[in-house]
Amino acid sequence: MGLDQAAAYLTDHFGSGVSSVEPIGEGDWSRAYALTVDGRELVARFGAHLDDFQKDRLAALWEGPDLPIPQVEQIVEAPGGWCCLSKRLRGEFLDELPGDEMAAALPSLFATLDTMRAVDLSATTGYGGWGGDGQGFHPSWRAYLSDRRDGPSGERLTGWREALVSSPTGIRPFNEVAEVLDQLIPFCPEERHVIHSDLLHLNVLVDGPRVSAVLDWGCSLYGDFLYDLAWLAFCSPWFPAWSAIDWHAEGARHLADIGVPVPDYAERMRAYELHIGLDGMRYNAFRCRHDVLASVAAQTLAVARG
């Protein structure tokens, strides 16, 4: 939905109090617009997948001082799918921080991960990806890590394997990494915590040294809390400004300082980086982003062979 169409829809739906509609973000699954409604700053996101917005609404129940999540006010049908209206939180994108500011934000980022680890999930079941009802799709964490299908329902990435086979990268790196991952899965505990699983891609805002918003819970999982740390470690080579940050060492130091035991830390981190790399290969093959696919495959192979 383009700007003019979005502005017209929002005015029709929310009335004459709508003003200052402007684009503020666009991903592969949704497009976001800032707006003011009767003087209140809000964000309207348009997308085809209702579950993503329902997950945002459920995630907002976990909101707290160290886990700022915008409250979802409405989810309504819109042309081509759905519109999710939520409170606007402000800040700079974590992805765009220079190295010194990223280092200054680490304590707040770790506090956010600590708060996520403590979220009460007793009202839900399952592991791996979860839906708009809050229930996970897999019977165990290891079952999720072992799953090589398109996804819980297969509707988004259908055809990824054929696209990967026919790509310049081919299927061989994927298969090599998958074999190494299978050897590491026994080290991965059946823990069940909230995982954001997409802390980059403009999904975290910071205000000074503090996290000011954690956005877009569509990729969220239930499982081992180390997965989010592995996400940051795996993705760090694409952020040269962060080259001085050793995510493995910083994460281990923080967990030791707060007294959280992490048996098999190295094996778990390596397993999750490989799993994240496999997902990246699947996704970029599906999107036919061959340059990104080749880069992700090379990074994942380096972890697998390291």
Can you give a write-up of this model?
The chain contains 10 helices and 12 strands. With 306 residues, it is α+β, with helices and mostly antiparallel strands. The strands form 3 sheets. It has a 5-stranded antiparallel sheet, with helices on both faces. Strands 8-7-12-9 form a 4-stranded antiparallel sheet. Helix 6 runs antiparallel to helix 9 (265-286) and helix 9 (265-286) packs antiparallel against helix 10 (290-305). The longest helix has 22 residues, at 265-286.
Strand content: 15-25%
Tally the helices: 10
| Count of strand segments | 12
Summarize the amount of helix as a percent range: 40-55%
Summarize this structure briefly:
This protein has 306 residues and is α+β, with helices and mostly antiparallel strands.
Task: Explain the layout of strands and helices.
Layout: H1 3-14, E1 18-26, E2 30-37, E3 40-47, H2 50-59, E4 72-78, E5 81-87, E6 92-93, H3 99-117, E7 127-130, E8 136-138, H4 141-146, H5 160-166, H6 172-184, E9 193-195, E10 204-207, E11 210-214, E12 221-223, H7 226-235, H8 247-257, H9 265-286, H10 290-305
Antiparallel strand pairs: 1-2, 2-3, 3-5, 4-5, 6-10, 7-8, 7-12, 9-12, 10-11
Helix pairs in contact: 5-9, 6-9, 6-10, 7-9, 9-10
What features would you highlight for this structure?
10 helices, Aminoglycoside 3'-phosphotransferase, Chain: A, domain 2, five-stranded antiparallel beta sheet, single chain, alpha+beta, Phosphorylase Kinase, domain 1, globular, 2 domains, four-stranded antiparallel beta sheet, 306 residues
